[in-house]
Amino acid sequence: MDKSNQNPKPYNPELAITSNFYVPHAEANHLNAQDVIYNLVTSAKNISIASWNCFDDGETLNINHKIVAELIFEIQTKLEMIEKLLPMAFKDDVEG
Q1: Which site among 22, 65, 75, 80 is 20 to 30 Å from 16 CA-CA?
Q2: 55 in any annotated domain
Q3: What's the predicted TM-score (pTM) here?
Q4: Predicted confidence (pLDDT) per residue in 48-91, tens digit
Q5: Which domain holds residue 46?
Q6: How many domains would you assign to the chain?
Q7: What pairs with residue 60 in β-bridges?
């Protein structure tokens, strides 16, 4: 019998925020962080282009506003993840 849900942990709404939930892997180093940041930046740039394309001439919204709101939220989430990773990305692995 699966006992994983018999004593569930209390729900912590703070952990529903992607940047708060993120924990780097124990074996990750600054190079891994740099790679992840590169991928997040690339993805955020693509989403910003998609967001821009939701407007005619950069002014008139041509799709449902909820879609644009979701795209903006996705960019914000990626930026928050980048912010969390930046200290690790510039820390080298040479210690003592």
Answers
A1: 65
A2: yes
A3: 0.73
A4: 999 999 999 878 999 999 999 999 999 999 999 999 899 999 98
A5: 42-88
A6: 1
A7: 56
